[in-house]
Amino acid sequence: MALLCISNGHGEDSIAVQILQELRRLPQRPELAAMPIVGEGGIFQKAGIALVGPAQTLPSGGFIYMDQRQAMKDLRSGLLPLTRQQLATVRQWAQNGGDILAVGDIVPLSFAWWSGANYSFIGTAKSEYWLRNEAGPLPQRPWYEGWSGSVYLPWERWLMSHPRCQAVFVRDQLTAEHLQRWRIPARYEGNPMMDGLEAATDKLAQLAAIAPSPAPSLTIALLPGSRAPEVFDNWQLLLKAFPSLQQQFPHRHIRLLAAIAPSLNLAVFKDPLMASEWTPVPHRYPTFSRDNVTLTLTQDAFPECLHLADCAIATAGTATEQMVGLGKPVFTFPGRGPQFTRAFAATQSRLLGPSVMLVSDPEIVGEAMQHCLQDSQRLQRIAENGRHRMGHPGGAKGIATVLHKLYSAGTVRG
């Protein structure tokens, strides 16, 4: 068995790596390779997974469908010849007898179909929770969404119901049951987004010990996202939320833990603090203080930031969902995009339900947070909702086990 994984984004690459690593642990492990459609695939190389085909970082970061200006930038940067080469790569893989695993949305799914190989699909981008919950359709959804009876459009469902599509793994049971109505081999084996979030004891202790204060503390994770240059604009928006936090929690020590992607230049996040009234605090992690607030920047303690935090302020995709999955509230506001736009934020809030509080402006985050954190019953509902919508760890192993059985048996759906 030879399996090529096609993915199209930072979060999708992370999910794909976890599944491929689980596949490598199984007996008679398959030959594995990856082709990231977006970016250069550093996370695959770090995990020791071979890359095939061309790889290139484009200006949009994979979000050309959200902004026509980003599409033009990608075209000028060589999107069309890159796509032609990638399509040739997957066709050659199929001709050599390999199978394909597509992770993400319709783009890698289309690549997998076009190759001519048997393929499976992990749909990370969509959920029926966008349109409905267990009680029925959502009243606040836009009129044009769900016109075809599902969050997945007819052409997406056609690709998923094709005889060469061996399995479709979706992010929740609600979506799986809905897609099965169209004879799509959809199943829910758990959500890989919740894997790999175990916290290291030493890092927890180091972060918890930052700037101890006799006042009761409130710990907030800051999740600006991972895609440059958008993440830098998001960081400026997050900084605007701090005065409202101080106003609403004047008698508490506010500890901010910023989880910054390792691929980003940390100086861009430090410079606005150095240029204002923040004072550096000696610590292993870059830390700054101002009045009753301390802010710590981390690039290797993402799980620890989530576990220590009481809540989060976020302009992120996957990181927001992982925080929700841990049962904690997240406060968001729209940015300028191309990913975290007003439309994206609204869709995310429907996907994650009461766990996400979408506010119109960062300067009112403090008030929304104060109302939420003082309501114990609301916090209990948020905890239960997060575990229900995001599932428990173990999804990557479950998906890998099914894939191994499926392709080892050589079964072709027909």
Report what the structure shows.
The protein is an alpha/beta fold and 414 residues long. The protein has two domains: 2-195 and 393-409, 3-Layer(aba) Sandwich (Rossmann fold); 201-390, 3-Layer(aba) Sandwich (Rossmann fold). Helix content is 41%, strand content 18%. It is built from 17 helices and 17 strands. α10 (242-248) packs across α15. The mean pLDDT is 90.
| Rg, alpha carbons | 22 Å
How many helix segments?
Answer: 17
**Average pLDDT metric:** 90
Helix content: 40-55%
Globally, the shape reads: globular
Beta-strand residue fraction: 15-25%
Q: Supply the CATH superfamily name of the largest domain.
A: Glycogen Phosphorylase B
Sequence-ordered SSE layout with sheet pairings:
Blueprint: E1 2-7, H1 10-24, E2 31-36, H2 42-46, E3 50-51, H3 68-76, H4 79-95, E4 99-104, H5 106-115, E5 119-123, E6 132-133, E7 136-137, H6 154-161, E8 165-169, H7 173-179, E9 186-187, H8 201-208, E10 217-223, H9 230-239, H10 242-248, E11 253-259, H11 267-274, E12 279-281, E13 287-290, E14 293-298, H12 302-308, E15 311-314, H13 318-325, E16 330-332, H14 342-352, E17 356-358, H15 365-373, H16 376-390, H17 395-409
Parallel strand pairs: 1-2, 1-4, 2-3, 4-5, 5-8, 8-9, 10-11, 10-15, 11-14, 15-16, 16-17
Antiparallel strand pairs: 6-7, 12-13, 13-14
Helix pairs in contact: 1-17, 4-5, 8-12, 10-15, 13-16
What's the gist of this structure?
This protein has 17 helices and 17 strands. The chain is of the alpha/beta class and 414 residues long. It folds into 2 domains: 2-195 and 393-409, Rossmann fold (3-Layer(aba) Sandwich), CATH 3.40.50; 201-390, Rossmann fold, CATH 3.40.50.
